[in-house]
Amino acid sequence: MFSDRRLKSNIKRVGTHPIGVGIYDFTMMGFKQRGVIAQEVQEVRPDLVKRHANGYLTVNYGGL
Q1: In 4, 37, 47, 54, which residue has its Cα 20 to 30 A from 28's Cα atom?
Q2: Strand-strand pairing, 49-51 and 8-16
C-alpha cells in the first residue's frame, strides 16, 4: 500500500502506533484515509518499507 508522505495531504496525527510512529488521518487520491507515513516507518522498521517502480514508498501493513 502506498504510504509515501508526498502522496498525502491534509495530514493530521491522531495517534501513535506501538512501534513508535504516528498514525494519521489524511487525504490521498481524493479519499480520506488513516494510516502511517512510510518515511517514519522507514526510520524504525526499514524492512517494512519498499520503493515501488514509480519511486513512491510502500509499507507492508501486514508486518505492522
Answers
A1: 47
A2: unpaired
